[in-house]
Design brief:
It is a single chain. Helix content is 80%, strand content 2%. By secondary structure, it is an all-alpha fold. It has one domain. It has a two-stranded antiparallel sheet with strand order 1-2. Helix 1 packs parallel to helix 7, helix 3 crosses helix 5 and helix 5 packs antiparallel against helix 7. The longest helix is centred in the middle third of the chain and has 26 residues. The protein is globular.
């Protein structure tokens, strides 16, 4: 496996820049708020999640994992029935996302910028999961090209910018 296998596409470069910007912003915000444990822990969580997404983007981890899952399904003989499994997986993902959203809203009550940053990071992770599940109908939308970029690149850019800006606003508003 070649390290950094996908740095040659506009879409992957957009993802790398988006996740690195969000990671750097999270680290800066955490450093500024490290003495306030109520919010510093949440910001550290966001920075850690964004750094894992950056690492995944750099080594193409979700597609390696997806390929392994696909090969397992082929060998077990249930690849043809994967659509039901994919829909069940996405349903579970939505339930987990809703659960964590409620927890974050309660924990960060009154801290709008920190809540938005955490929500954006959760959405970024949710998009990672959606890509991992790779339901064809969703892939048809996310991997369609617009102006040399895939739609997923715009999603990453919006979520990365939202996370980065919200983290800095959260650090400024304390």
């Amino acid at each position: 496996m070649i390290l950094f296998p996908n740095w040659h596409t506009r879409t992957s470069i957009a993802g790398l820049l988006s996740f690195s910007t969000a990671t750097a912003s999270g680290c800066i915000a955490w450093w500024r708020l490290r003495n306030l444990p109520t919010i510093a822990g949440s910001i550290a969580w966001v920075a850690a999640l964004e750094s894992l997404l950056l690492l995944d983007m750099a080594v193409n981890g979700r597609w390696i994992l997806h390929e392994n899952m696909m090969q397992f399904a082929l060998h077990q003989g249930f690849y043809a029935q994967r659509r039901g499994i994919q829909i069940a997986g996405l349903t579970i993902l939505i339930a987990v996302f809703a659960f964590w959203t409620v927890i974050l809203f309660r924990r960060l009550r009154g801290r709008r910028s920190a809540t938005i940053a955490a929500w954006s990071a959760l959405l970024s992770f949710g998009m990672w999961c959606v890509e991992l599940v790779s339901l064809h109908a969703i892939d048809a939308v996310l991997y369609r090209k617009i102006g040399g970029f895939m739609v997923i690149a715009f999603v990453w850019m919006v979520l990365g910018a939202t996370t980065a800006i919200s983290l800095q606003l959260a650090a400024n508003n304390v």
